[in-house]
């Protein structure tokens, strides 16, 4: 897909269970250092100081944990790209966000539930009264998914376009594809694109638990042998994408060049093989977004093998083993980790003994066969 | 003016609709032109002591279903109608691109309350229910009982339903830009066709989120009409006595195609999308900028992308929610772009009859605008008995027939500063 060839990654921002700095993230995730607050079902992000990125106190008050982490990582990506103070550029930039269905506030939900459950009759009426008494106008602002983008737009002055994508794992894919397409087609020169996921979502944990995800017996049926366990993950990750022309004109540092596409395409739109053809030279690695669901992992394994990138002979890191299933953020997290690797020049030790870990890494494939939807690949290549 | 390129026109080859007025594009259009309203007292749940008890809910056949089930079942009907009219055969479904204007699913309170229990520390907390799987082995089948709670708050499950019903295999792009989601979805579809990524895209907009909680939240923001009396008269866009919007539920579907693809299969176009423009307003998260700067930018970008001048526009389907602030700022924006002509271009708000269908509004209103381009008939703005003197627009209050509508704008604005404007055109203009 030639029109994608001109899109560069010029900024990275991450907030993860292992910290913010990519070197620290690679080191800590390799050492298996326990994350404070992690348990058998979920992995939270590290503590951080939101004030460092979000200066407006009013904006901070409007955000739940997921939205706050998104704004923080977005600010870090802008810092990394050198665009933080470029108001003229940000005014015209695309803002593309993938996130879940907004954030409920457990404290208030619990209060409403208690008011209803302590009643023995007229529970419908009790619910109505509790809703009217307990809910506040600001609750709406954390429960609209696109308010994550609105907070970022207001804090950093992005007034070009704003698109929020939902749909669990496929949200991240749609966000990245859209941002790349718009730059490649000349609709835009710069995009701030990212996602956030918060594992501390009680209802999602309950839903996954009822579906059998955290039961040992079901895990055996569910998970491929390469995933240790299923856990719900948290992270916020943002990229700055830029047209080559725009990046070169401002002498921006580029982490890599990026293209992406779907695996299941009967229309000749984009085939994985055409993506992989572009993987030139040595140093190939796969950052697999697999969350370990057996059926999907086997399809991914076959696809990669058919392209000469069998996980058994290509350095492959299933980063969900360390980060958990980060849903909307899963794919973009993989791209960020791959770009950080290209920036280091060598594979980090998280790849273990798969291949020569000290070898140069000039290009990488990122995969996403999540819980829902189809497989998608991104290809990132060092940009000289 | 922007440096944005112009967009290639795309044709509309099929449309499907389920609203409070009924099922089917024809039924909806007929009732719209008969001045009927879908706004009524809510009977689906108890509204006692809620601030508002009216809405333009989906027809009664969708009662007794969860929010997710209402959306999904209505979506199947709308998609069926759209693909039938477009004449798509099943061989086209597998690789069909789908863009959805999505209202994220959320659990209804009865589902939540089933998971609450008294914890040892004396507080109430959420716990998983012990749900027996239907099969011995673990599966990823959303239709199995152990998936229900997860499914009802999982937006991807809508794609699962589309896959099972129609065999559509490509996962959809699901966009949420609050009340401009529908226009965003259509804009993204036009971009996908423009760059050649696909020659045909199914666009779906849905919102079935009228619940005690959503009514309470909108009321707390002061956005809803709390007028006593006949519910059908509660939504009064652009009227001097307007007092807020009425929540609506709807599902709309459109099949958009490249003009070359449509010509190749010799299928007629209903109308077309020729431009789209968006902008971000950082004035306030929920309030409209009285200067309407971002609205002006969105309209100008839409006209630019269609290579049109303001004088080319024959009709405007307004966002027209019926709130005091929004209608005023929309009028300011329209006047700034269209100048003295703003008092001549006919302007209508469908929300007076089908309520504000939130995430689905843009798709539903694009369907009505396409019918206006096709038929030359302008639908009315119901309940606008006396136009606000601060709104110098030509509000259509009575159905007008026999107009020649070559180009029309359809506006959508949303919380979070989202503004998306579409330009539609008559079929002969799009296909020429």
The amount of helix of chain B comes to 25-40%
Q: Tell how many strands the DSSP assignment of chain A holds.
A: 12
- The CATH homologous superfamily name of the largest domain in chain A equals Thiolase/Chalcone synthase
What is the strand tally of chain B?
16
* CATH class value of the largest domain in chain A: Alpha Beta
The largest sheet of chain B, given as strand count, sense and whether it forms a barrel, is: 12 strands, mixed
Proportion of residues in extended strands of chain B: 15-25%
Biggest protein-protein contact in the assembly: A-B, 90 and 87 residues
Q: Kindly, what is the distance between the CA atoms of the first and last residues of chain B, rounded to a whole number of angstroms?
A: 27 Å
Portion in beta strands of chain A: 15-25%
- Described by the principal axes of the CA atoms, the overall outline of chain B is globular
Measured as a percent range, the helix fraction of chain A is 25-40%
Rg result of chain B = 21 Å
